[in-house]
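Changelog-adjacent note: as of this version, every example in the card shows the full chain rather than a window. The one below runs 113 residues end to end.
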Amino acid sequence: MLRNKKAQVWLLSQRMVSEPAVTEADMSDALKTTNHEVIRAWIEAREGRPAVAGTSGKGAILRVDFGEADEELQPVEWEEFFRIMDASNLAFVHQDMTADGATSRFNKFVERD
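Full-length structure tokens:
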């Protein structure tokens, strides 16, 4: 279950508006978005924070920091996170739930189509 109930409700309401019918089988599928509000809600609902590996700015590799020990991650503000994402022409691929119904943290950044 998502820990941040407000973010969970908002995220689900956005999926219902932007997608036709969402079935239980769809919940384990990966979704792709460039919508900053959806991305931020998904990350915050899982108690994640925006981060980069390497330096911020040009050459930065976007990551989501879920608080595990990883000294290579540097926190960044949301504005910088989305600036890098847009400048790099990236989309956010994520999964809401695993096949067994657990909250998923699966995510990655891919080139936009």
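Structural remarks: The longest helix spans residues 5-18.
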